[in-house]
Amino acid sequence: MKKWLLIGTALSFVLLLHLVPAEAATLTFNQGVDLWLSSSNTPDTGNPNLGWGRNVGANPRNYDSLIKFTDMFGTNPDQIPLGSTINNASMHLYMTDRVGNNSYIYQMTIDWDETATWNSIGGGIIPGVNTEAEPEVAWVGANPAWHWGVFDLTQSVQDWSQGAANNGWGLTADRYYVFTACSFEYSSDPSLRPYLTVDFTPVPVPATMLLMGSGIVGLAGFRRRLKKQ
Fold first, then answer.
1. For residues 36-61, average pLDDT
2. Which of 151, 65, 182, 71 is nearest to 112 (CA)?
């Protein structure tokens, strides 16, 4: 009887370990670097806005934008532990849309910094060359008034959590008109600057790992006691 009691206790303990939930958390990031790139190759000098749009013609005036949130991953309380499961990542831009025009957000595959220009990244955003082949987000403009645009970018943040390089995103469009958004340098109202909210579940969860370690020790003890029966 005592033997079966010990076995039952051990099995219950193992089941308890599997039932310990990983705690999800949400962090907001509002620091980073962004650039409004022009096909004239003029450098971005702290532009308060971002813009994107393409004009295919005799005198093209083309614009793309780059944005990257920094210091997202690490071991500090305000960072995401590497290896975490990203439940949702949403970028918020205070922006205007040109009604009926298509815009795209691509995950960048090349490194860049605040000194980058249209030419230095290879001639603006080129899908499949300096970005992933397919856009992570695509939308048709429907609101020309200033408003908050919210974009689901969960997949790329998950890639970064798994160890891929965080090269940020590129914004582009297939028609000319400068779609405009407030940048990190927007000073009139800092609350209108871009930000990223990330809901994630740490993997592995430290508390769960500690319990698993205790469980292994406990099961070893049960086994030794059973052998003495």
1. 86
2. 65
> For the structural domain made of 22-204, what CATH number should be given?
2.60.120
The pLDDT of residue 113: 96
Terminal-to-terminal C-alpha distance of the chain: 11
Q: Strand order in 137-140's β-sheet?
A: 32-38, 63-69, 169-173, 102-107, 137-140
- Give the separation between CA 67 and CA 47, rounded to whole angstroms: 13
80-to-29, 74, 137, 163, 177 alpha-carbon distances in Å: 11, 6, 23, 12, 37
**Of 179, 105, 163, the residue nearest 135 (C-alpha):** 105
Q: What is the pTM of this model?
A: 0.81
Domain positions in the chain = 1-20+207-229, 22-204
With tokens 């004239």, the residue in question is: 40
| Cross-strand partners of 193 | none
Per-state percent for the chain, helix, strand, coil, to nearest 5: 20, 30, 45
Q: Determine the Cα–Cα distance for residues 66 and 105; give it in Å rounded to an integer.
A: 9
For residue 86 the two structure tokens come to 């990203």
* Residue 7, pLDDT above cutoff 80: no
